[in-house]
User: Fold this.
Amino acid sequence: MKTTTIKELTKIELKNPILIEGLPGLGMVGRIATRYLAKQLKAKKLARLYSPHFPYYVLVNKKGSVRLLRGEFFFWKNEAGENDFIFFTGDSQAQTIEGQYDVAGCILDFAEKNNVKTIVTIGGYRKEVEKTPRVVAVSTSPRLLNEALKAEALPSSAGNPIVGTAGLLLGLAKFRKIDAICLLGETRGYLPDPRAAKSVVEVLQKMLKIKVDLSEMDKEIEKSKEIVERMQEIEKRREKHAQKMRRVEEERISYIS
Amino acid sequence: MKTTTIKELTKIELKNPILIEGLPGLGMVGRIATRYLAKQLKAKKLARLYSPHFPYYVLVNKKGSVRLLRGEFFFWKNEAGENDFIFFTGDSQAQTIEGQYDVAGCILDFAEKNNVKTIVTIGGYRKEVEKTPRVVAVSTSPRLLNEALKAEALPSSAGNPIVGTAGLLLGLAKFRKIDAICLLGETRGYLPDPRAAKSVVEVLQKMLKIKVDLSEMDKEIEKSKEIVERMQEIEKRREKHAQKMRRVEEERISYIS
Amino acid sequence: MKTTTIKELTKIELKNPILIEGLPGLGMVGRIATRYLAKQLKAKKLARLYSPHFPYYVLVNKKGSVRLLRGEFFFWKNEAGENDFIFFTGDSQAQTIEGQYDVAGCILDFAEKNNVKTIVTIGGYRKEVEKTPRVVAVSTSPRLLNEALKAEALPSSAGNPIVGTAGLLLGLAKFRKIDAICLLGETRGYLPDPRAAKSVVEVLQKMLKIKVDLSEMDKEIEKSKEIVERMQEIEKRREKHAQKMRRVEEERISYIS
Amino acid sequence: MKTTTIKELTKIELKNPILIEGLPGLGMVGRIATRYLAKQLKAKKLARLYSPHFPYYVLVNKKGSVRLLRGEFFFWKNEAGENDFIFFTGDSQAQTIEGQYDVAGCILDFAEKNNVKTIVTIGGYRKEVEKTPRVVAVSTSPRLLNEALKAEALPSSAGNPIVGTAGLLLGLAKFRKIDAICLLGETRGYLPDPRAAKSVVEVLQKMLKIKVDLSEMDKEIEKSKEIVERMQEIEKRREKHAQKMRRVEEERISYIS
Assistant:
């Protein structure tokens, strides 16, 4: 495989489709939110993206078979609304600079071909989150940004970088006359963060006038809380030990000098 | 040299050939097993693969000449059975991400051209091995997987990554309608591990209904045992020394505090 | 995006244009000087350069929109003089070796297309600067070098490397029969250094017979002085602390031995 | 610049030319030997090689001009002998794996075009050299290897890698039916090593039946000896200091425990 390739699994006519993208990244926010939406809406397989810029390993699945790392497109026929949806998520981001630009370009090729006029990308925003994580929005379209702010997203301060596919899609979409918005859930980013993903999904529900059941997400949050608590306990003990070691060292020095 | 290139050394019609691949990797299991089979079956030279993604040095041979790093294809006419064999082994894996995908693609081009319908790739599986190393099998074909399990290979748990050419060949073969199976010999992976390679060869013998003399392999295992024992002794002494140093340090701290 | 691309924003006939280039680099000297000149001369947007060799993130701007990293060409119609000017600056240099050569080549393609016969590149020169930073000049044209020396630039000693776009443009311009000069402002290089940029601008004013108001630059220098002073204080304290620690350690050792 | 490019400076018919290559590498042996031969024989400029795989900086020369890093071909009309000579040396080797294969391929393109049938590459061989450095030879041609051994070069043991252009040229020349030999001067490799280069030149003189004055080389060796002696003194002092520190530490530990 020499170039990034998209393999279509089905042919379907979509009605003013909106593309929602979320790949692995900070706190896995984009991937968790996008997968959750696709799953809850029972979105169907549309296409797969393979790339020589993905890591060079394959993954074993439950049946003892393997598959290449890939991106996956799903679609959802939104009978009640004006826009069908395409979801894009996957195993990995491209691993090289040039690969990042290349994969983002291929995603946009596919979006254009399917008459996508609006793209939503999802990611994480590093922050020491106290209570409910907030969602930061940036957009190449004032209209979309306004809709996000009405849905309780916050504007971003200038100068922030948005790294990876979630950012590049916005930057490159402009040249194709595709409006795009990026929603970033606040996250400490160390571990998969379903809480941040939930905040993004809530903003998205309001913006896109869709409704998904969030109870499964709450279960994931409970599970992740336990992991975080265990991690924090380990961290505390480590810190305590480090303090003790510093004290020992200080005493040694004051003793000697 | 700008692209990966295969130079054919002979033209031959092969009968339903099966490709067996093993390159250097964890414990050298793939390379040792593949070379052993090719040697014992007196397989003949078929083609060579050169690539600008291999390391940029040449190797001196016994006659004082040098050669580029390369992959080598051998063939074996299996008069008694239904399938001839092609073996692929070599000096190195590709050194870049894109190079890994490119080399795997070129191997598959060659396989397709020779009407290969089944591929076996061989590698190592990191594990603290106590007794006889076991062999883990994954396959894109339930039929092949089943044959491996019948030959006493174990199924893999889901989520395991298979890194490098042994994995990518499986992932990419699917697009070409070629069945593929990967056999991974359990190995600590630090040193060339003929014991793990022997386990793989034994599974392969049953699966492929071939018979090779394993006495040479046993000699290699004896030699490698001596090396391992020497290494372990060094390790033990190092650990003893580290323990002593830690004790000294602890005493110092308890003395001071 | 697979290749470096220049998007023209306006078509304009320029009179013997001179290209002045300054990208981020040592002390940000090139970028500060070039941006300052373009701003003071009220240069207008001419074109933008995008590249898959730039870092893979986008920047948020004041309106909450984002944009790709890019290079920017501006032009200034110099009614009083013989030469119009094109300025080139941007967010980043290319991130890979091959990318550096590629981007420099694309800048030259654009220069040639606009009949540029002279290029000035600006950068920083690492030096512990005591008083006013001096400007070092190198040029592929003895005539240009001579003009720079008359404008009080200093010649460079042989063997110095000039890294990045500022250097490659000179090296590559030779093959296109374009004269080029590089002006390097002396700088410690740790922080954005408007003082070094001002020295370069002063040389350029004399060389190119243009006149810009430098009072804004002086304000930037004042601001940066405060930052430098604060940094130096921190450094002093760190050094003091390190000395103290070394003393403690020495005493400990002399005490023990 | 997107690809490696050779710019011819002159057109000349050469008589059975032999190409002698030496780029910077271990101990700079290849570059020193090749430059010395070209200079002593008053070889003339033939062509230059530029590559986007070379480091991305330019070098300032004595006149205050700059130039890209490059490779240089020189030629020498050998009136008395059967073979004219082409010398190839330069500032740098290619910086990426694929670049190494690409540059070696371009050198061979140029060699083929000039009807080169024999190539000599020169490099360094890491060894703690006591007295006069010896020269190790490997060759794709038994005839050439034999000539080198007669000229007092030593054969290489099997398995040695020869890294970089000096090695790849041999490996790749085979495919073009060009005989090639590599001469490696023994060197500690830390510093430019004219002594190792001289040993190689002496072997070459015998092999190629040429005669060059070696007195300039002897001067370089004298200079380098002084540098080595100064370096060794620094090393000794450092070792002494380290020993002292270890003793202090040991005493401290025995004191404490």
Notes: Helices of chain C lie at 29-40, 97-113, 142-150, 165-173, 194-208, 215-256. The first strand of chain C starts at residue 5 and ends at 8. The CA atoms of residues 26 and 179 of chain C lie 24 Å apart. Chain C has a mean pLDDT of 93.
